[in-house]
């Protein structure tokens, strides 16, 4: 099925059928019959035919704005330069036994990632296909390299759904249901989720109590000489787009340094410019030893990568490998993504438009008491809904209605946390498109509140 997106539609919502439309419903029913249960948004089931920038046309000819694709598709749907470079590689070769033979594409993107990743020290890269694989590789590197076996994470983190990464995933209990035992010797401590402080304190008068608890934990529970690494998301994604105070990670970094503990930054959801920096760790002024990355790394092509200190490289061949890590198409896609971000100065765009975005969302907060908190870092944006600002009781049902109302009005957004939405537009979004989308959210809130 091929449908052209008319250039004139690129800045206009156009809803021609009830959503989902008849063709979309056929596809939805087929998926429900044959595709295993995952995380599909059946309440807002967008079924795309083709996309362009921040816009997509569904199989019934409706045109909607997509504020979810920037989580992966940083450059927007079908960026012409990216499509051209990936198409050129497709005509050369698709797969050439990536784990067993050298490749100019692997060599080039490995050098690029080592230069972009935080820290002025020799690095190497392990390639994979997904975020959870990138995290699993990080854990293996940390445990083998330090000869320690404990890994500490934070409550609300999401690191993946495979056995190792799942052991440190605590954003939703359903993700861990009926799947014990997990990887052993993993421990989770409270994150700096200041809006919902685990200790019911207030920032900044709390003096970052949650960070100082880590010190006490290492004195009373975990021998620091047995801890291989702290793993963290610079901005918690699935847990609610939680942006902690800068000092939290600086204290964590100092603790790690004093005990020879590695820092693993899970930048799967934050990497490659979403924060306004190549990596969100840079915003917090810290230098992780190991960085796990995926999602936007190749602008939609399946790719994961783990940067690590060269001195912690696997000591023998065969300790770790996979079939599709570093395959040609994904490497070409990642190189093209880096090139376009640099050429079009998109990191600067994210910083400036991110501030504009935040101002617009704060205006909504001033108008609607059901918005409890707005959290942003560049294009990593979360809005949390509550029944009452004083009690902060989560308004999950209201959030769900708002997401559905926005979909019916031509804007695609995703939920996160218990009662929040996440906004992750592509870097190429314009201010006019921001205004249009925020207007749709406002109308969606008004409709949802009347129900």
Summarize the topology.
Blueprint: H1 22-34, E1 48-52, E2 55-58, E3 63-66, H2 80-92, H3 104-116, E4 123-128, H4 131-146, E5 150-154, H5 163-166, E6 186-189, H6 209-220, E7 227-232, H7 246-259, E8 262-266, E9 290-293, E10 304-309, H8 328-343, H9 346-367, E11 371-377, E12 380-385, H10 396-408, E13 411-412, E14 414-416, E15 420-423, H11 431-450
Helix pairs in contact: 2-8, 3-8, 6-7, 9-11, 10-11
Describe this structure as you would to a colleague:
The chain has 451 residues and is an alpha/beta fold. It has 2 domains: 7-78 and 346-450, Alpha-Beta Complex (Aspartate Aminotransferase, domain 1); 83-343, Aspartate Aminotransferase, domain 2 (3-Layer(aba) Sandwich), CATH 3.40.640. 35% of the residues lie in helices and 16% in strands. The chain has 11 helices and 15 strands. The strands form 3 sheets. The protein has a 7-stranded mixed beta sheet with strand order 4-10-9-8-7-5-6, with helices on both faces. It has a 4-stranded mixed beta sheet with strand order 1-2-3-13. A 4-stranded antiparallel beta sheet has the order 11-12-15-14, covered by helices on one side. The longest helix is centred in the last third of the chain and has 22 residues, at 346-367. Residues 1-6 have low confidence and may be disordered.
């Amino acid at each position: 099925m091929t449908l052209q997106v008319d250039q004139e539609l690129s800045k206009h919502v156009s809803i021609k059928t009830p959503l989902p439309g008849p063709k979309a419903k056929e596809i939805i029913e087929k998926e429900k019959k044959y595709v295993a249960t995952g995380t599909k948004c059946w309440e807002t089931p967008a079924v795309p035919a083709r996309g362009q920038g921040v816009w997509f046309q569904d199989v019934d000819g409706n045109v909607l704005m997509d504020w979810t694709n920037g989580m992966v598709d940083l450059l927007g749907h079908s960026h012409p330069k990216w499509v051209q470079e990936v198409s050129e590689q497709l005509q050369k070769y698709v797969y050439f036994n990536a784990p067993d033979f050298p490749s100019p594409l692997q060599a080039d993107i490995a050098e690029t990632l080592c230069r972009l990743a935080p820290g002025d020290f020799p690095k190497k890269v392990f390639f994979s296909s997904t975020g959870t694989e990138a995290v699993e590789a990080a854990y293996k590197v940390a445990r083998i390299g330090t000869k320690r076996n404990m890994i500490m994470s934070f409550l609300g983190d999401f690191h993946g759904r495979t056995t190792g990464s799942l052991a440190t995933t605590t954003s939703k209990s359903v993700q861990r249901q009926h799947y014990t035992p997990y990887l052993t010797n993993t421990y989770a401590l409270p994150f700096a989720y200041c809006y919902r402080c685990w200790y019911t304190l207030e920032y900044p008068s709390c003096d970052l109590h949650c960070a100082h608890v880590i010190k006490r934990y290492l004195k009373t529970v975990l021998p620091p000489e047995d801890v291989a690494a702290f793993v963290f998301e610079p901005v918690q994604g699935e847990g609610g787009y939680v942006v902690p105070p800068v000092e939290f990670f600086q204290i964590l970094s100092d603790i790690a340094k004093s005990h020879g503990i590695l820092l693993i930054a899970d930048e799967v959801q934050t990497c490659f410019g979403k924060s306004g920096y190549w990596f969100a760790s840079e915003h917090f002024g810290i230098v992780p030893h190991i960085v796990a990355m995926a999602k936007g790394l190749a602008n939609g092509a399946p790719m994961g990568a783990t940067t690590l200190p060269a001195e912690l490289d696997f000591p023998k061949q065969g300790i770790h490998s996979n079939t599709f890590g570093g395959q040609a198409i994904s490497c070409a896609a990642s190189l093209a993504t880096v090139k376009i971000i640099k050429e079009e100065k998109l990191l600067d765009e994210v910083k400036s438009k991110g501030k504009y975005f935040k101002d617009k969302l704060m205006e909504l907060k001033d108008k609607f008491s059901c918005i409890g908190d707005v959290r942003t870092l560049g294009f990593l944006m979360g809005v949390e809904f509550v029944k009452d600002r004083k009690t902060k009781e989560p308004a999950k049902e209201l959030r769900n209605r708002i997401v559905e109302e926005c979909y019916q009005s031509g804007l695609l957004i995703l939920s996160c946390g218990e009662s929040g939405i996440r906004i992750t537009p592509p870097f190429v979004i314009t201010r006019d498109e921001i205004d249009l989308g925020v207007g749709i959210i406002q109308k969606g809130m008004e409709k949802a509140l009347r129900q």
